[in-house]
Design goal:
mainly alpha, elongated, single chain
Length: 126
């Protein structure tokens, strides 16, 4: 697992979250800004949970073990997301569209991260 790529992902998700929150504060209200921060924060925490679960895998794990670990990590990520969305729905019931917008924006960063270059040593190892 490449820590530089994970750090870059978290940095860009944080920047996107802050940007959506600032725009929401200027265009709407501080409650919408807080909802945007929570929406981006949900994604940040879910991705962190995924990364931690995958990082716990030993470096010499088989392909089957890696796939199983990623499936479990994805289930944890979904659980974190659903749980935090339930809490957010209770805290920000009237500001949910902004929360969803921030979540979607940070999800876009996550998907674009799949296109980022993988270091040469990782490509050679397979």
């Amino acid at each position: 697992m490449n820590r530089a790529i994970i750090a870059k992902l978290f940095l860009w998700q944080t920047v996107v979250t802050a940007t959506v929150a600032v725009i929401a504060a200027m265009a709407l209200s501080w409650q919408d800004a807080a909802a945007a921060l929570m929406g981006g924060g949900i994604n940040l925490l879910a991705v962190a949970a995924f990364a931690i679960r995958v990082a716990l895998l030993p470096p010499d794990a088989t392909a089957q073990a890696r796939l199983a670990a990623m499936a479990r990590a994805e289930a944890v990520k979904w659980g974190v997301s659903i749980g935090l969305f339930a809490i957010a729905a209770m805290i920000f019931p009237g500001h949910f569209p902004v929360l969803i917008l921030a979540f979607m924006a940070t999800t876009g960063v996550y998907w674009f991260a799949l296109l980022w270059d993988v270091p040469d040593d990782r490509q050679q190892r397979g």
